[in-house]
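Q: A reviewer asked whether we had any structural model of the full assembly, not just the individual parts. We don't, so I'm hoping you can provide one. Inputs are below.
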Amino acid sequence: MDTQQLAQAPHDRLAAYLGKDLEQVNALIRARMASEHAPRIPEVTAHLIEAGGKRIRPMLVLAATHLCNYQGARHHHLAATVEFIHTATLLHDDVVDESQQRRGRATANLLWDNKSSVLVGDYLFARAFQLMVECGSLRVLDILSNASATIAEGEVLQLSTAQNIDTTEDQYLRVIRGKTAALFSAATEAGAVLAGAPEDHVQALFSYGDALGVSFQIVDDYLDYGGAGDAIGKNIGDDFRERKVTLPVIRAIAQADSEERAFWARVIGKGVQNDGDFAHARALMTRHGTLESTRREALAWSDRAKAAIALMPDHDIRDMLSDLADYVVARLY
Amino acid sequence: MDTQQLAQAPHDRLAAYLGKDLEQVNALIRARMASEHAPRIPEVTAHLIEAGGKRIRPMLVLAATHLCNYQGARHHHLAATVEFIHTATLLHDDVVDESQQRRGRATANLLWDNKSSVLVGDYLFARAFQLMVECGSLRVLDILSNASATIAEGEVLQLSTAQNIDTTEDQYLRVIRGKTAALFSAATEAGAVLAGAPEDHVQALFSYGDALGVSFQIVDDYLDYGGAGDAIGKNIGDDFRERKVTLPVIRAIAQADSEERAFWARVIGKGVQNDGDFAHARALMTRHGTLESTRREALAWSDRAKAAIALMPDHDIRDMLSDLADYVVARLY
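A: Here is a predicted structure for the entire assembly that you could use as a starting point for your response.
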């Protein structure tokens, strides 16, 4: 590996390694998002799919199938499937969150309307299942239908945990599995199953995807309180203003005395926030070591991802996936 | 068949015949709409599922499997699948249409919120696919994923045909197939496939479900202009006020002179409606024989449904399905 390669982010190295496959996946995505009769569908889909997402989920599928020496031709279908499921959930998320921006562009619900986002999302979800059926594996279908249920359940759970200061760490973990880890782990597990990998490799790839996704989401939630602001590409304090009950908040509340608890009940539970409240929240988190323990939690999940993938045979892709688990937590430093 | 049975509506006779199976389907629906972690899910689902729908789609599945002498135990899963897909589309429809009432009760989007309706719909759709995977047939999965895509595509198409006076009969047919016929025909076709029926029986049951659904929807659209009002359980003129371009409108526009075309462009295209416009629309439809030709179209589809089912072997259920095709158009008289 030369210096230039080392300097590249691991997902860019993966993209370079999987280049030809990714092109075919993109061609398949474009072909399948077409609708002869309802031109609104490809318009809305293209707006989101061509906006330059990293295609991390299709890459996880392709990485898993390569790592398991898959010789067939259905991995592109599986990769397109997970991207469609992801895109469908983004369309619905933006309706649910009333979002205005995604990937630096106006959201579909703003450019068209909520109706189009809901229905085009449904269409993409159905298209995903069609592609999956073409993979010809009931076990792959089982994995992805379970992941879809976990995603939706996590989203509904999030509706009731938001603004609820009694949210537990177990509930938080369910929410972030639905948000990120369920589709990551389904991508890597289904890739291994499609390749006919032995059970211990299937399990290793499942655990890798799950731990990578959980780690990624905890880092995101850490940075909203512990980050430096503009360097992280999102506004620090957004979660606080939106009254999300994330891990740093849950752990700060767990250690709160009665006065602190009244503070959290006011700013998160009731949503009454004044100048200086966000700084006070951060100060409480520092006092109780909450930010540091959240950071350690993210690192522990990253370590689990690396340990899981270490069980796989020696392979360039294995090393890139391991580096990806490091990269995800590099934002913590 | 005694007099009492003859007096019953065919779907009530079907429900009586399939009683034990329907109970098991209802038990399965209740079990699978549960969510251990997000209680909002069964609350929203129960509101709609327990509201006393006729379970016509699960009955079509069970009727098809019985008619094809199915001996297995997965027909309940298939029947629950189609009811879940149907319920998911109702939840999303009510968000898209901003509906306030469904089956005589306040809609979920009104009682909870749009977010819950979107996400619980997604959850039920995922649950439907899980149930389908348990049926263990890739061909059944293929049929139902295709139907799901047709449903969503029809809904998106409807967004662009609404208020568009250039809508063609072909587009209209696609919209109503998405709205009703696609899931009817998927229910009967998938039932036959699950039962391992010969191809001509699979095709017959597909055609029956398709024609029954198309007929049903054309009758609905006829009654909105040609009906007698309160006898039909919906307000006459609703489609006109909502500027829907249904078959009676398409055929009236096809025969319009330039003055009449300007009328349709104003009331449907621009949505400028004054007192007396609805009566004038009905008068134009009578003048051009549009209502009569719409009525004949519905009857022709009902006949197609009966012709398709006539190919099946002699069976009580075959006769009830045939009667159901008559019953659907009986509202025309």
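A: Points you may want to mention in the reply: Residues 199-226 of chain B form the longest helix (28 residues). Chain B has a mean pLDDT of 91.
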